[in-house]
Design brief:
Order of helices and strands: HHHEEHEHEEHHEEHEE
Number of domains: 2
CATH topology of the largest domain: Chorismate lyase
Number of strands: 9
Distance between the termini: 26 Å
Radius of gyration: 20 Å
CATH superfamily of the largest domain: Chorismate lyase-like
Oligomer: single chain
CATH architecture of the largest domain: 3-Layer(aba) Sandwich
């Protein structure tokens, strides 16, 4: 845990532990170092440590547990699919502690959604491979992930069409096989009413006449010639997720 940089402020200390929680290196229930240890690690005053911990508590990331000190909260923030790629590239962790995925489905379908067609340069009715899974934290569904891949992406990474979980990241396989770098576009978010399929996947019981709002984030991936993928994450009501800086 060697990390000592004179002049660090409370925001730097908070960001260090926030990053470790987001990356899955610190699991729910894991203790943070003591105030004395954090002071020595960052060469800061006790007041700086207290302010940093207060920020993390206000974000719902950590909580005080008496003699246990400060521990990671049971329900930390839920990251998006594209953040998960970055986490895997950083430390190889596909899932955070306590996180799993279920309901994996892979299908070939004609695409008619105008937003997806526009993002992937498809004509309505063109076929694409769609991968769906439900992410869970401690058994509770937190989000539904939907990934759509056009034919030229699947041609380079045929594993995308196999009805099994991917072992490797699609972007790494694509670059390895084509020599083209994959870039992530701007992630955007918006709220809308959930479909019945999404309510079922998130295990939300609601009458047919009740509108349930969900938060959605979308992002597209490209190489220097084509759009390669369109990812959508649909979050259960009340889910906390990080936003870009």
């Amino acid at each position: 845990m060697a990390y000592k940089a004179p002049g660090k402020g409370y925001a730097d200390v908070a960001n260090h532990f926030r990053d470790r929680i987001k990356s899955g290196e610190l699991a729910p229930g894991d203790p943070l170092p003591s105030v004395a240890e954090i002071r020595e690690q960052f060469d800061v005053a006790a007041k700086t440590v207290s302010r940093a911990l207060a920020v993390l508590k206000s974000e719902g990331l950590v909580t005080s547990r008496g003699s246990l000190g400060t521990v990671v909260s049971k329900s930390p923030i839920v990251i998006t699919g594209s953040d998960r790629l970055e986490r895997m590239a950083r430390n190889g962790l596909r899932y955070a502690p306590g996180e799993t995925s279920t309901g994996h489905r892979v299908m070939r379908r004609s695409v008619y959604d105008s937003e997806v067609c526009k993002a992937l340069d498809l004509e309505p009715g063109d076929e694409a491979v769609i991968r769906i899974r439900v992410f869970r934290q401690d058994g509770r569904p937190t989000s539904v992930g939907v990934s759509v891949y056009p034919p030229h992406t699947v041609a380079a990474v045929p594993e995308l069409a196999d009805d099994v979980r991917m072992v490797h990241q699609f972007d790494e396989l694509y670059t390895e096989r084509t020599g083209r770098e994959v870039t992530k576009g701007q992630r955007t978010g918006y709220a809308r009413h959930a479909s019945q399929d999404e309510l079922d996947a998130l295990e939300i019981e609601a009458s047919p006449h009740t509108a349930v709002a969900v938060q959605v984030t979308v992002v597209a991936f490209h190489d220097d010639e084509h759009p390669l993928a369109y990812w959508e994450d649909v979050y259960a009501p009340g889910t906390r997720l990080p936003l870009s800086d």
